[in-house]
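Bench notes, afternoon.
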Amino acid sequence: MKIIAGCVIKRDNKILMVKEAKNSCYGQWNYPAGHLEEFEKIMDGAIRETFEETGCKVKLTGVLPIANIDLEKETHILIRFMAEIVEENISFDKEEILDVKWIPIEEIKKMKKEELRGYEIGIKTIDDIENNNIYPLDIFDNNKYNS
């Protein structure tokens, strides 16, 4: 099992999306996200992945419902944070990301399965935002504990 953390950044009824360059999802739009590194805090991982994939510095503002997804024949836990831009400087590694852009929510809702990575959870994310299924960050204890 792996943990994926990422951010959903909404501004002016648009979402900042990344276009994937990975073979398994080439050309599909996604919310910036990725696997946590060993010993990394979940919130820190979401901020790091967002920066790596978009070049933007963000501040977390809330958390969407946690999802359990099957990906690459393995169970993944997906933690999506709502975030706002602190510093917008769109830049990305062209080997991992093809493009980064603000996409209107209505356009995302009209995307086909071939256009949106993890289509079901991608659409559910928009539904959660529109229904205000956003929870406070303090549900996360961002401390690290040693055994």
